[in-house]
Amino acid sequence: MSQNGSLLSTPVRASNGERRPPLVFGGQHLTEILAETLEYSRERDYTGWDYGDGMSSRLLNVLPFENKWVNLAVQELVKRPPINVRPLFLVEKRRNYKGTALFTIANLNYHHYLDASDVSADVDYLNEARQLADWLVDNRSIGYHGFCGGHKHEIQHLEKKGVPNDPDVVSTSFAVKALLEASPYDPIYAPIARTASDFAVEDLNYREVDGGAKINYHMNHPDTYYTINSGALGARLFVDLYDHFGDEADLERATKILDFIADHQADIGGWTYRIPASSSHLSMDNHHNGFVLDAFLRYRAVTGSARYDETLERGLAFYRTTLFDPDGAPNWDESKSYPRDIHAAATAIAVFSAAGDLQTAGQILQWTLENLYAGDGRFYYRKHRFYTVRTTLMRWAQAWMAYAMSEYLVAATQDGGHGHVVEHSAVEPKSSR
Prior knowledge:
Shape: globular
Structural class: mainly alpha
Radius of gyration: 21 Å
Helix content: 40-55%
Strand content: 5-15%
């Protein structure tokens, strides 16, 4: 990172003049790690391999037949090995829609940090964010009731095959967040994001049910089960729109969705991936519980309501003590430690930053930098008990860590340094491999 002035030695000043300690991990300032992460991604045009992108294999696409089980086999074979076999299968590198939204927010956050710190940089992070936001607009899914987006590669589901750009509520929710945060810099972003409410209501079948309301994950979602975390992110979408536009209908929809999800919180404090739980091989997995908590935290931050305080207290306690080890290592779910996944770590850094628990967020960040950071702005995918998968995925690893570090940086510099932000010395930056 080339900047005028050393952030390693220059504490940040708060608006009230208070000096805060720098955020240092293993002798490297967090801003430097974040800048290197964004640089690695920017140099590749935010394009790369992704989790579950096996259907983008050119070898698969030249087969003279189409078979669901062959598709699933290739998709899982590409996803699961300890080494990256994507080059062997000629899997295409693409820009991911949700990843682009995360990169948009990360660049915006870093721009705001540098601007507030009066530190100049060789990169125009605001311009990067605007270009990425423009890409979200230009590459949205067309033919639906409102703004939406989805993965750029096909995904083979058990029920049927998704198509590229098949919109889903998760990708759309993060894209709405990105456009609304970028809206001060272009008047077209907010009105476009506003129409996502129509997509969610009409195309994703928002409907009231006993105990609240539901919303579908994607266009191919069957009626035999309900995906909890995607419902939560649908609620988050409505909350973000309510925060910007003040439409009470959006707040009412968010409340009813979250009421239903709160009612399905398990006694131990977490949420299964689906209702019924038996409909998925996933149980109370780590990063999906993070998505649920993120939605409840956002609702409280925007409304000031204590409606879900008990839900949040129990959920955060479960998240902190069951889904993470004391040293910050992410567990897979409530019963398994491995694999320890970069997405789980990144999601939690952002969630605990939003919750104001920077001590826990910092511990998870430290563990991640010690165990899943290759150096030079590149992150690894997963750590198993006896080996680490050293594949770098552009959305799953790079975008999520850029977003997480930027959210932590914003929260830490707003905190005032009263006992939350600490210097970590155990992380030794690794050379690129």
